[in-house]
Amino acid sequence: MFQAFRNIKIGVFIAFVNLLIQGISFFVQNFIARNLGTASYGHFGLLQTDYSIFCAIADFGMTTLILAFFGSRATVGSLFRNILQLRLFAAMGAALLMIAFACIFRHDHPIFYGELIFTLGLVFQHAFFDWYFICGKFWKRLFVSKLLHTISYSTVMGITLLYFRVDRIELIALAMVLAALPAFFYGVTQAFNAKLLKITRRTFRFIAIMIKAGTPYAISSFASFAYLPLGLYVADKFASNEFLGCYNFGHKILLLCSSIMVHFISSNLITLHSTHDKDIHLKDIAIFTLFIAVCSSPLWIFPSWILQILFFAANWTEATLQTSAHILQILSFSLIFQATRTTLISTLLKEHATPTYALMISVGGIANIIVCGLAGMYLENELIPLFALTGDFLLTAILFGYFIRNKRMKW
Question: Considering the chain, what is the average pLDDT of its residues?
């Protein structure tokens, strides 16, 4: 059996396991879009992207390091105390940075108060203790935590959006923060004790070492926001509020699909660890890319239908539907680029070449910022999503060039 088929099988399974919370979250987005309207929904998408960036700052690659370096040892003794202190310090530090960002860059923006409210979400994240459950193999506790969050999120957002019909960005943001509290406090009851408040010199030495080790992972995570999400920022700066809202519809669908693509990277890593073949086989890349192209084809063949089905509660007009369909049609080709480079990225991660990957993704991100920014400044708004794919194309080309140069490509 080709490695590509094994990757597809495992990736589909992992994606299916994570589909529940993603599906519910996307379902809620429907009613957020309905209550806010197209323009304000675009601003809300910008707020959520800002929050995601500061979540990446709070994590700083630490989850990957903890899982890779410590495993079950991370759940006991002084190491557990230092890790939890690290996560608390990072979350509070990121919250302070987000407050500063909001006051400097968002003080006259419609999402200003939403930014301030979401800083609480950085500290009280529902997934704050996931690393503890995974490292300790506490699968039942992890399931309870996810189930608790799913029930809480569905209930709180349902009451907020359907019963009270809230149509203000800051109030919806507050509801999201409140919905995360039950899962967060469940984690506290499972993992927290008074000894964790004891801070020593070892705490600061441990934080410094982990930040240094996590920098390549953090850079890779930060640079990813210079790709598709960049289009939201360019549209916010240079386009109308209506166009920003239309871009957000397409972006949300691509974000959901891209999150599923991440699971295929995980599945690829699993299969790579089970083989000693160091060559990159083009036939595996071609099969997997074809599989993703077929699966994603409705996005560029029937974009209007997909938008109306997935955002069934949105207040569509002919103009907004047409613009959103055009944007979705273009952005969907990002999935083809992602599929083409999945095996290449997985190989770099397996071989611990994270600094190399961080450099590559940074180069692609910088190029995307420059090209997409210039497109927003000087070209028509409709071309923003097209030029937002510059980073995807360049990163894919760089990865292929790297493995071809090292003579590791075979059919």
Answer: 87
When pLDDT is averaged across residues 308-323 and rounded to a whole number, the result is 94
Buried/exposed 362-373: b ≥16 CB within 10 Å, e otherwise: bebbebbbebbb
Q: Give the 3-state secondary structure of the chain.
A: CCHHHHHHHHHHHHHHHCHHHHHHHHHHHHHHHHHHCHHHHHHHHHHHHHHHHHHHHHHCCHHHHHHHHCHHHHHCHHHHHHHHHHHHHHHHHHHHHHHHHHHHHCCCCCCHHHHHHHHHHHHCCCCCCHHHHHHCCCHHHHHHHHHHHHHHHHHHHHHHHHHCCCCCHHHHHHHHHHHHHHHHHHHHHHHCCHHHHCCCHHHHHHHHHHHHHHHHHHHHHHHHHHCCCHHHHHHHHHCCHHHHHHHHHHHHHHHHHHHHHHHHHHHHHHHHHCCCCCCEEHHHHHHHHHHHHHHHHHHHHCHHHHHHHHCCCCCCCHHHHHHHHHHHHHHCCHHHHHHHHHHHHHHHHHCCCHHHHHHHHHHHHHHHHHHHHHHHHHCCHHHHHHHCCHHHHHHHHHHHHHHHHCCCEEC
Beta bridge partner(s), residue 280: 409
CA distance 236 to 44: 11
pTM attached to this predicted model: 0.89
Whole-number Cα distances in Å, 170 to 50, 94, 119, 243: 14, 19, 12, 21
According to the model, what pLDDT value does residue 77 have?
82
pLDDT cut 90: percent of the chain above it: 55
C-alpha distance from residue 242 to each of 4, 304, 326, 372 (Å): 41, 17, 14, 19
Domain boundaries, given as residue ranges, for the chain: 1-18+227-411, 37-212
Q: Per-residue pLDDT tens for 48-63?
A: 999 999 999 998 878 7
